[in-house]
Specification:
By secondary structure, this protein is of the alpha/beta class. It contains 10 helices and 9 strands. It comes from Rubrivivax rivuli.
Length: 312
């Protein structure tokens, strides 16, 4: 090959071909936002459970496909039932996440739209959101009794807001996820990527450890334990392919401590075992995990405690 005659690469045009943007995933609690994020990223980075307000932080998930890099932001479900400091903090997280995004995925259950959904939609109709494309994600399509009911429902939704796109789907179907990525891509600005091509999240391993423990806590205690409990990482040491982690589960009452520990400590052991296995799969590394349970009365309504536990 005669390199003297080869044209120099046009770096500027290569960069302009790249697309990258922030995509917020919003909706009421328990509508499937974290499941959708995990499916879009192709890796579990956001915890899931049937308990409302499982997601408590802004979680960033990254997916790069071809020339497009999607930076998804999973937010807590907007909460209007309880006025604790924790819920006020979570709602501030939702509002702040919407300020700098390029596209919004408004997730609802297909065929359903209630007052909690309407309150989230009102946030998207604020003056600061004008001009930002909002895509209606009609999730859990498989739960709809009659598929033909979705068309009149979509017409009603169009009357509520000028959505840029309607996407009926199931977050658990790979084909639907690929279709959604294709729909979102043209809305991303033409600009260089924010992250490396193989990046999955901007969250640290320490943060992910706390989240996975909290997921198992919620899943294994069910409705017994109020959601006002959290996990604090006391020690995180990386020794080659080994992670040594010590964590404390913080609850509000002595009775809650007993629920977490269980008879003979069996429930706490199971929480630790399942969290350890999940983290080992996530990091492809050996994990040594120690768990304790402490009572901190009123922590969920104490701003100082919230800040010390990592709530922004």
């Amino acid at each position: 090959m005669n390199t003297d005659t080869d044209p120099a690469p046009d770096t500027e045009s290569e960069l302009s071909a790249q697309r990258c943007g922030l995509v917020a995933i919003v909706g009421r609690p328990n509508v499937g936002k974290s499941t959708l994020l995990n499916a879009l990223v192709g890796q579990k980075i956001s915890i899931t459970s049937n308990k409302a307000q499982t997601t408590r932080h802004r979680i960033t998930g990254i997916r790069t496909v071809g020339e497009a890099q999607f930076v998804f932001v999973d937010t807590p479900g907007f909460q209007d039932k309880h006025a604790t400091a924790l819920n006020r903090t979570l709602n501030r997280t939702v509002l702040s996440s919407l300020g700098d995004v390029d596209v919004v995925l408004f997730v609802v259950e297909a065929g359903r739209f209630g007052l909690p959904d309407a309150k989230v939609l009102s946030l998207l109709q604020a003056e600061s959101m004008q001009g930002k494309p909002v895509l209606l994600i009609a999730n859990k399509l498989d739960a709809l009794a009659r598929r033909q009911d979705v068309l009149p429902w979509l017409k009603q939704m169009q009357e509520r807001h000028a959505f840029a796109e309607f996407v009926p789907m199931q977050a658990t179907r790979a084909a639907d996820i690929e279709r959604l990525l294709g729909i979102v891509q043209p809305y991303l600005p033409e600009q260089p990527w924010f992250y490396e091509e193989d990046a999955l999240t901007d969250r640290s391993e320490r943060f992910m450890a706390a989240e996975m423990i909290r997921e198992k806590l919620f899943r294994l205690t069910g409705d017994e334990l109020p959601y006002s409990c959290t996990v604090v990482i006391d020690k995180f040491q990386e020794e080659g392919a080994l992670r040594r982690i010590a964590a404390t589960i913080v609850v509000e009452r002595d009775a809650h401590k007993g629920m977490v520990i269980g008879d003979g400590g069996e429930r706490l052991k199971r929480i630790g075992s399942e969290a350890r296995q999940e983290l080992e799969r996530l990091w492809d590394a050996k994990v040594f995990l120690e768990l304790w349970v402490k009572v901190r009365s009123g922590w969920a309504d104490d701003e100082a405690h919230l800040r010390s536990y990592g709530y922004e």
